[in-house]
Amino acid sequence: SQRDDALKALQSQIASMQQKQQADKGEDMSAIVKLYDTMKPQDAAGIFDGLDMNVLVHVAKAMDPRKMSPILAKMNPQKAQELTTELAAPDLAPPPEVSSVAAADPNALPQIVGH
């Protein structure tokens, strides 16, 4: 029907706009990364110390680790520690939990028998 065709056309238009927006964001991030890549680590660290953590994480992830490490070394130690924690967070899965059935069943646990 004509309505279905109009909806499909609208969905397609929205999808292409979203792709363009993502591409624009990628270009913006590349420009920012290039800017920091050309700075002295001391200068970049001074700026990084004042950045919002969400912004800092995005920039740090986009940078080459070889360029990022001297900057990190010059940053405020507390801010550098926070950044490192944020960068590592997705890779740090919580430890697997002991199943509640095993914890509730004393026979499932090894017994220590005294002599």
Cα(first) to Cα(last) distance is 84 Å
Main sheet: strands, sense, barrel: none
What Rg is obtained from the alpha carbons, in whole angstroms?
A: 25 Å
Overall SS class = mainly alpha
User: What is the tally of beta strands?
Assistant: 0
Percent helix range: over 70%
Fold topology:
Layout: H1 2-38, H2 41-50, H3 53-62, H4 65-74, H5 77-88, H6 100-104
Helix pairs in contact: 1-3, 2-4, 3-5
Characterise this structure.
- This protein has 115 residues and is mainly alpha-helical.
- It is 73% helix and 0% strand.
- It has six helices and no strands.
- Helix 1 packs across helix 3 (53-62).
- The relative contact order is 0.08.
- The model has no long low-confidence stretch (mean pLDDT 81).
Keyphrases for this structure?
115 residues, mainly alpha
Overview in brief:
By secondary structure, this protein is an all-alpha fold.
